[in-house]
Amino acid sequence: MENKISLHDQYKHDFSFTQRDVEKFAEASGDFNPIHLDDKYAKKSIFKRRILHGFLGGSVFSKVFGTLFPGNGTIYLKQNMTFYKPMFSDVNYSAIFEVIQVMNDKKRALVKTEIQDEEGQVVISGEALIQHDSIG
Q1: CATH number of the domain that residue 43 is part of
Q2: How many domains would you assign to the chain?
Q3: DSSP character for 98?
Q4: Is 116 helix (H, G, I), strand (E, B) or coil?
Q5: In terms of residue numbers, what domain contains 85?
Q6: What is the pLDDT along the chain (136 residues), one digit of tens a residue?
């Protein structure tokens, strides 16, 4: 992205994860909780089916910052997340970003980060602090 990042800029990215993505994340993270991997176990849970790892869902923020908005060269300094609802494989979600503070002298921005389901309900919400040459 070659444009300058400014206060109130917004970005939206639609995505989904497959069950294979969940399995690969379990392998990479070492989190083999059966709620993510075992149908029989998950059917007995409060969710009645397998759910994504929360950090797999939130990993979309890293993808967007590092490759799309603002893109290559982004330094990811901080992220907080609150998980409101479970996420599921093969469901469409939208990651929504809004620049809520710009620190021109350091080329940093505080960005509201949110994931919404197909009905527009928030499933993950948080804020990220990023640094990039296009900020300010």
Answers
A1: 3.10.129.10
A2: 1
A3: E
A4: strand
A5: 10-131
A6: 457 899 999 999 999 999 999 999 999 999 999 999 999 999 999 999 999 999 999 999 999 999 999 999 999 999 999 999 999 999 999 999 999 999 999 999 999 999 999 999 999 999 999 999 999 7
